[in-house]
TrEMBL record:
InterPro entries: Ribbon_hlx_hlx (IPR010985), TA_system_antitoxin (IPR051404), TTHA1013/TTHA0281-like (IPR035069), Uncharacterised_HicB (IPR008651). It comes from Salinicoccus halodurans. This is Pilus assembly protein HicB. Pfam families: HicB. GO terms for biological process: regulation of DNA-templated transcription.
């Protein structure tokens, strides 16, 4: 790998990608799983949160190297600017009625009622 290619990969690794780390307890034991939201299948594990965090960057580096070699576009980091806060949901009229009535009983708007229910 040339110096220029190494620099290109470093530039990608320094972008603010979304790293998600979860603790897992299963038949294998207790460990942490890290993933990069923008890269489907970019997953690593570690015995500690720190190990998983370090491991995911090694996996991410491999993903980026492979994508560059294959001429694939590297995903851009997902930023908060991509979310407007608006969501349109279609539902049966009967569900709309039931939710509207429940909101009225609580003395709040349907929007506030739904936000409250979804945030729990």
């Amino acid at each position: 790998m040339t110096v220029a290619e190494r620099k290109d990969i470093s530039n990608y690794l320094n972008r603010p990608y979304n790293i998600i780390i979860k603790s897992i307890s299963d038949e294998s034991g207790d460990y942490y799983v890290a993933r990069v939201l923008e890269f489907n299948g970019c997953v690593a594990t570690g015995e500690t949160r720190e190990e998983a965090y370090q491991a995911i960057y090694e996996v991410l580096e491999g993903f980026i190297e492979d994508m560059l070699e294959d001429g694939e576009a590297i995903p851009e980091p997902i930023s908060d600017d991509e979310y407007s806060g608006n969501l349109r949901v279609r539902m049966p009229k009967s569900l709309h009625r039931d939710l509207s009535q429940a909101a009225k009983l609580e003395g709040v708007s349907l929007n506030q009622y739904l936000i409250n229910k979804l945030s729990k």
